[in-house]
Amino acid sequence: MDAKKVLIVEDEKSISDIIKFNLEKEGFSVETAYDGEEGLKKALGISPSLILLDVMLPKMDGFEICKKVRETSTVPILMLTAKEEEVDKVLGLELGADDYITKPFGMRELIARIKANIRRVDFVENLQSEPSDIQTFGNLEIDMNRYEVRKNGESLELTLREFELLKYLAERENKVFSREQLLEEVWGYEYYGDIRTVDVTVRRLREKLEDNSGDPKYIMTKRGIGYYFRRP
Ligand code: CA
User: Fold this and answer.
1) Whether residue 208 sits in one domain with residue 153
2) What does the alpha-carbon distance between residue 217 and residue 210 come to, in Å, rounded to a whole number?
3) Fewer CB within 10 Å: C terminus or N terminus of the chain?
4) Ligand 1 centre distance from Cα of residue 74 (Å)
5) How far is the CA of 12 from the centre of ligand 1 (A)?
6) Are residues 142 and 174 in the same domain?
């Protein structure tokens, strides 16, 4: 199998060099970019398996790059954030970043996160050979095995995480889960993110599933407790 290619977009050369060194040791092939414009060009030009994207960059910041890449690509993007405000922005905006890690980070954690994000893509690519297991909830059809969702017969574009959250809740209809439980069950114990990630994912999911995301019929909020799935 070809080596997976990781693009590192980071203007601090010392950080970029040490990440590159460690990734190559793990068998990845690595490309680097030291400013935002070069980063965007390479992100779109070299089809990396994952982009490691710093936020503060000369010429164009990481948020802008993330948004631009997402217009045409579903490549996993792991943001490198330095401040709490940046984390807020990654979580709060519709950037489409898959994950973030806060500086300073441990190299072992970074490598684990990179591998986990790439594994998820491989996993989705292999789903097409699975047998269908379609379950119907009102106007929604969820193929639990192939990770496909249709609403009124039309296919919805969900990210893997959005699908996993939907599947988890739909398989446990009417049972209420706290944000902490969902983070642990759907994101997994190795995930270091915070519970706002759950709210952001629920919001995105509602925008895709619901006729009116302000008045949801499928994914319901139980005030002060958490979320549950309801058959409309
Ligand atoms: Ca920087």
Assistant:
1) yes
2) 7
3) N
4) 23
5) 6
6) yes
> Cβ(153)–Cβ(173) under 8 Å?
no
User: Domain of 188?
Assistant: 130-229
The answer to whether the CB of 181 falls within 8 A of the CB of 227 is no
pLDDT in tens, 23-52: 999 999 999 999 999 999 999 999 999 999
- 């439980």: which residue's tokens? 181
Q: How far is the CA of 37 from the centre of ligand 1 (A)?
A: 13
Number of domains in the chain: 2
Q: How far is the CA of 60 from the centre of ligand 1 (A)?
A: 11
Ligand 1 centroid from CA 38, angstroms? 14
CA of 80 to the centre of ligand 1 (A): 9
The Å distance, Cα 39 to ligand 1 centre, comes to 12
CATH number of the domain to which 16 belongs:
3.40.50.2300
Q: Are 80 and 61 in contact (CB under 8 A)?
A: no
Instruction: Select the more confidently predicted residue: 188 or 60.
Output: 60
